[in-house]
Amino acid sequence: MPGHPKLRGPLTVKEAVKLTKARKVDKGWRANCPCDPDHKDLLKIDKNSEGALLVYCHGRCSFYLITRTLREQRDQSLICA
Ligand SMILES: [Zn+2]
Question: What is the CA(3)–ligand 1 centre distance, in A?
Fold first, then answer.
């Protein structure tokens, strides 16, 4: 969010893993989806060849919704810190 010094840019893989408490699997990480409490262990986290975050929910939540939810969680924790 422009103008707010505490809010940062795009989520990193590390942040997404931490926020979702993801566990390491063969390729990337698995976690509970942040968008729906019924989506247990349906979230897949990975990175592309440039190291950018890739998230995919097998419950069909959109990339936009997942990253927006995680960013809100992250930025909220920064404000409260
Ligand atoms: Zn989901």
Answer: 31
